[in-house]
Amino acid sequence: MLDPNLNRIPENAKKIHLIAVCGTAMGALAAMLKDLGYEVTGSDAKVYPPMSDFLARKNIEVKDGFHKDNIADDTDLVVVGNAVTKLNPEAESLREKAIPYCSMPQAINRFVAEGKQRLVVTGCHGKTTTSSLLAWILHNAGLDPSFMIGGILKNFDSNYRLGKGDHIVLEGDEYDTAFFDKGPKFLHYPPEKAVVTSIEFDHADIFENLESVKDAFRRFIRKVPEQSTVFAYDNDENVREIVPQVACPVRFYGRDPSSDWRLGNIAVRPPETIFEILEDHASIGEFKTPMMGEHNLLNALSVVAVCKSLGLSDHQIRSGLGTFQGVRRRQEIRGVKNGVTVMDDFAHHPTAVRETIRAVRPFFPDGKLVAVFEPRTNTSMRDVFQDVYPRCFDQADVVCIRRPPLLQKIPEGHRFSSEKLVEDLKTRGLDAYYFAETDPIVDFVKKIATSGDLILVMSNGGFDNIHDRLLKKL
Question: Of 317, 313, 299, 328, which is closest to residue 153 (Cα–Cα)?
């Protein structure tokens, strides 16, 4: 066991080591600490591009593999990533050497967020896009915010920034913090403004059921300071159930006529969507965004509400909305070849799959929508959503389902069946196909794709670089 008395950050810490530094968030934290003037080292089980190149450009020494001697005796602080177990050799070394340690959220809170107004975006869907849009609008308006987000913002080509302004935008993750702190990461970020986009069952590897997910959000809501403001989505019964427990004012947003912020008329005019916003039942005008889908309009609506509460003008908000380039792996067009568009999206939860397909359909009206799905999260590889996924692909013309690539990680009797999903999709009248490997998917799509088609690839992983391979084949 680690000494709980050493779970602290020394005031005079100068030399900092990060265990499991090659994760997206941990790598960003390492770079931020380096930019702040600290001496930073790191280690990970697998050190490879692009994160290895990114850290090398920052002159951060990274050890390949976990070893006790990776932590120097004169290290002042060790940041432990949530992928690290208590049996990790460096965690054992940390105990033996009695070096102060902390989690990633603790480090962000202390070194980056301290003294700033925390704008925290939470929810089971839309966190990355919503927090990214908020960070860009604030930056575009000249407020020079800091941010730490779980995706690469195209406007910055980064998932973090150290600004000199008063605000920091944080993606509030409900996933656990560290092996010594099983509470959600977002509990470490007391917000000035908080957004709650949705609450659904996910992360089956750490949450037993929906009730345990709701408990995590209850804990967050109860820690929100009474001088803060919570912006909550109106059409989620779980959100509606939990937010009344907050001590501060709640502002609802969505489509409900009683909500404080509401979407009005919507017009899809590719490559833009034009939408009306109402505040307290009065229209404040039309806004434009290149983002696709009503779910992204709702994300934008929550951001508009937050920005207005911070005093931004309609002009500043419109400018930011119109110039937002999006987030990598969120409806990201990877290329167009012979009139066929290949799009990459992070969708993996059934709700995200359904809403992503529904969102992009109107923007590609002249061709087929070919949905290519790889279930590879700890949740989607389990059978918890086996009977839910079939209803998520109705607006696709052709559906390609890959076998989960890491299915052996899931106990037998709890494994998701891609074959059964394809059978169920066919029963619903869909043109669906099962694939055991990625190569046959590439060959199949090349065979059926014609000009005007959209190939929508959905996975939270690299999917064997299928996007580039498709573009080369096409």
Answer: 328
**Exposed, middle or buried, 12 (CB in 10 Å: 0-12/13-18/19+)?**
exposed
Which residues, 6+ apart, have CB-to-CB distance to 193 below 8 Å? Answer: 117, 119, 120, 228, 229, 230, 231, 306, 309, 310
The pLDDT confidence band at residue 133, using thresholds 50, 70 and 90, is very high
Q: How confident is the model at residue 78 (pLDDT cuts 50, 70, 90)?
A: very high
Looking at residue 53, its pLDDT comes to: 85
Residue where the block lists tokens 């590609």: 364
Task: Decide: 289 and 297 in contact? Cβ < 8 Å.
Answer: yes
What is the reported pLDDT for 51?
A: 80
Instruction: Specify burial of residue 284 (Cβ count, 10 A radius: 0-12, 13-18, 19+).
Output: middle
Q: Which parts of 141-281 fold into alpha helices (H)?
A: 210-223, 237-242
What pLDDT is attached to residue 259? 96
Asked whether residue 317 carries a pLDDT value surpassing 90, the answer given is yes
The single-letter DSSP state of residue 462 is -
Q: Does the CA dihedral 322-324-329-332 come out positive or negative?
A: positive
Pairing of strands 332-337, 340-345: antiparallel
In which region does residue 308 sit, left (phi positive, over 0), alpha (psi from -120 to 50) or beta (all else)? alpha
Here the tokens at position 310 are 């911070």
Question: Rounded to whole angstroms, how far apart are CA atoms 143 and 53?
Answer: 31
Q: Is 194 helix (H, G, I), strand (E, B) or coil?
A: strand
What pTM does this model have? 0.92
The partner residues of 48 in beta bridges, in order of sequence, read none
- The structure tokens 């280690």 sit at 43
What is the maximum alpha-carbon separation in the chain?
65
Q: How far apart are CA 251 and CA 255, in angstroms?
A: 13
Put residue 452 in one of left, alpha, beta given phi > 0 → left and psi -120 to 50 → alpha.
left
CA 9, CA 32: separation in Å to the nearest integer?
16
